[in-house]
Design the sequence.
């Protein structure tokens, strides 16, 4: 599916996701490249760049372009903030029927000034107020597409995904971070779904989720996770149906990051807290959650046996991360099933006795695993048990 409502414009071709090939043949595949993290390759995206010749009798489009270009050449930070604010007001307050209120002219402005926009978004040591003023300005462009935002979303993901295919320097990393902030602002303030075409609205959000998942799976480092999780939280809150459809694939990639040995503890906590927010969908996808617990547990047992077979056995970071992720999934299901944990959980959610019986069995196995570790002769077990 392409983003454009009328069918023209970009589309994603190919795009294999680097999911784990589990050594358990009947398991749900999880991860973003597996325990070895071999990442998939994103396919190419072809995007048309239509040029509109509509006359700009009010001069607002020309004025907006000039403001962007002044922002690039101006050196004084206070003046740059004032220019960005002036640009945002100009776009936000364009009178109905004016040239700047026409999505075709907004697309022309957006495409013709892409070089200027990206030069500003990729500035590395820009002060916070200055960066915020400019991301607000670019978000204003995205919102000005109104009921035809396909070209905007298409371009943003084209840039995010193509930047993942190159070795990122500090400017590329800053550019990706800035586009994620802009995307969050536009999604937060947008009027989707559009009553005139709810099916297209649903499909567009599904496409945004698909591309977000590919970005997660191919990004070279975890520093973008907080911004991506903010975006996913907005979509979860506002567009629950397409989010529910994408849930399993998104969770599989996030679990892959959660067990990544290089993931800092603060980002692990952010992933855990975000996953717990999705309690309503965990409840609807209870079977998936239980299967995920089983798969993680099987991986934990395999890793424990591998550790025990070494000449100088000591508990591994991989085992620690697997168990930490297993606890996170356990907490998510507790949050979904039990009103004593989450007051928003209804009695109806607690009524599936077969699911709950299986869940309690997995909890018992988890406790038995902890007991096995604590009674073993493995080195480092004390700090390992404290860490989980």
Sequence:
């Amino acid at each position: 599916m392409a983003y454009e409502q009328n069918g023209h414009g970009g589309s994603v071709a190919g795009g294999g996701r680097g999911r784990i090939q589990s050594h358990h043949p009947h398991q749900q595949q999880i991860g973003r490249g597996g325990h070895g993290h071999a990442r998939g390759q994103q396919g190419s995206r072809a995007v048309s760049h239509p040029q509109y010749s509509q006359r700009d009798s009010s001069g607002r489009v020309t004025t907006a372009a000039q403001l962007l270009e002044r922002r690039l050449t101006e050196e004084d930070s206070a003046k740059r903030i004032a220019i960005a604010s002036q640009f945002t007001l100009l776009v936000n307050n364009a009178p109905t029927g004016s040239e700047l209120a026409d999505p075709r002219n907004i697309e022309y402005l957006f495409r013709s000034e892409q070089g200027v926009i990206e030069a500003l978004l990729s500035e590395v040591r820009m002060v916070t107020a200055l960066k915020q003023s400019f991301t607000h300005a670019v978000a204003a462009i995205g919102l000005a597409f109104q009921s035809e935002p396909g070209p905007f979303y298409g371009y943003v993901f084209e840039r995010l995904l193509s930047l993942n295919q190159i070795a990122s320097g500090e400017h590329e990393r800053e550019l990706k971070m800035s586009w994620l902030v802009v995307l969050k602002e536009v999604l937060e303030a947008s009027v989707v779904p559009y009553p005139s075409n709810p099916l297209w609205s649903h499909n567009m959000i599904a496409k945004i989720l698909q591309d977000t998942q590919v970005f997660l799976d191919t990004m070279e480092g975890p520093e973008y996770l907080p911004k991506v999780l903010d975006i996913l939280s907005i979509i979860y809150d506002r567009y629950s149906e397409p989010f529910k459809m994408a849930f399993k694939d998104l969770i599989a990639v996030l679990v892959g990051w959660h067990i990544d040995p290089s993931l800092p503890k603060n980002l692990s906590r952010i992933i855990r807290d975000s996953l717990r927010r999705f309690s309503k969908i965990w409840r609807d996808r209870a079977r998936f959650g239980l299967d995920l617990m089983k798969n993680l547990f099987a991986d934990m047992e395999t890793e424990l046996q591998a550790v025990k077979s070494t000449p100088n056995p000591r508990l591994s970071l991989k085992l620690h991360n697997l168990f930490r992720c297993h606890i996170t999934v356990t907490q998510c299901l507790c949050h979904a099933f039990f009103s004593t944990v989450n007051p928003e959980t209804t009695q109806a959610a607690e009524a599936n006795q077969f699911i709950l019986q299986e869940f309690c069995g997995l909890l018992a196995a988890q406790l038995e695993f902890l007991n096995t570790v604590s009674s073993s002769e493995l080195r480092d077990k004390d700090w390992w048990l404290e860490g989980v």
Remarks:
- Residues 18 and 38 are 6 Å apart (CA to CA).
- The two ends are 42 Å apart (CA to CA).
